Structure formats: structure tokens, C-alpha cells
């Protein structure tokens, strides 16, 4: 099986559109996982098979986020030093303050260690 060659260049507008679509997919997946975990808590032990499927979805979400981060980081290194993009009122669309600040280079978000023993907030 041969792989289709991906383009070397992409319009910046198209890139951001595609990135937004991917992030929206992450959001939908996360909400689905949240819903299923809530069902599992309600179902108790008999929800084991649902949990396995849910965890596979979570694993895929984590892998996708990791490779997007690697790709975007690598891509950012090839951007012209003087290139800027106006964020203006667009940043106000980000409802999570810590994320909005991180997106504009203020107060980077802290990574939660995988071995964290903190409690999970269920909504």
C-alpha cells in the first residue's frame, strides 16, 4: 500500500481551519468519554466492556494530541521570525482563562504529572 504524498505547503488560513477542526474533534471525544465514564459510575461493575472501549478512545485522543503538539512545534520553528498574527478579540472566544493566557504566551499552563494522585472533578 502506497501512501499519498502530503503537500509541502499549506495556506495559513487553511492550516488554522484544519487545526480548529481537529481541536473540535478532541472536544467532542472528551465530552463522549465524560458521558461514558458517568454511565459507568452509574452502572457499576457491569460496565466493564464499555470502560475498555472508552479507554481506547482516551488513548487515541492522547496520541493524537501528542503528535499534533510535535507537528505544530516543529512547524513553528520554520515560521519567519517577524511573522505575527492578530489575535485581538479572537482570544476572548477562549472560555478557559488559563488556556487563553497560554495561547498568547502568558502564564504557561502546568502539565499534570501522569502519576498525580489528585482527585478528579466529575461534572
Primary descriptors:
single chain; 123 residues; mainly alpha; 3 helices; extended
Question: Can you characterise this structure?
Answer:
With 123 residues, the chain is an all-alpha fold. The protein contains 3 helices and no strands. The chain has helices at 12-43, 48-76, 97-103. Helix 1 runs antiparallel to helix 2. It is extended and about 55 Å long.
Mean pLDDT: 77
Number of helices: 3
Helix content: 55-70%
> How many beta strands in the DSSP annotation?
0
Structural class: mainly alpha
Q: Any idea what the shape is?
A: extended
Rg to the nearest angstrom?
18 Å
State the end-to-end CA separation.
Answer: 45 Å
SSE arrangement, N to C: HHH
Main beta-sheet strand count, sense and barrel state: none
Instruction: Show unreliable segments.
Output: 113-118
Could you give the topology of this structure?
Blueprint: H1 12-43, H2 48-76, H3 97-103
Helix pairs in contact: 1-2
Short description:
55% of the residues lie in helices and 0% in strands. With 123 residues, the protein is mostly helical.
Amino acid at each position: 500500500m502506497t501512501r499519498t504524498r502530503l503537500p509541502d505547503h499549506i495556506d495559513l488560513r487553511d492550516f488554522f481551519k484544519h487545526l480548529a477542526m481537529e481541536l473540535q474533534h478532541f472536544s467532542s471525544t472528551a465530552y463522549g468519554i465524560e458521558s461514558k465514564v458517568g454511565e459507568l459510575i452509574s452502572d457499576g461493575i457491569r460496565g466493564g466492556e464499555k470502560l475498555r472501549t472508552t479507554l481506547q478512545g482516551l488513548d487515541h485522543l492522547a496520541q493524537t494530541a501528542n503528535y499534533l503538539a510535535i507537528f505544530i512545534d516543529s512547524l513553528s520553528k520554520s515560521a519567519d521570525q517577524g511573522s505575527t498574527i492578530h489575535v485581538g478579540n479572537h482570544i476572548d472566544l477562549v472560555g478557559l482563562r488559563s488556556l487563553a493566557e497560554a495561547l498568547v504566551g502568558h502564564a504557561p499552563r502546568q502539565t499534570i504529572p501522569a502519576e498525580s494522585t489528585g482527585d478528579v472533578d466529575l461534572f
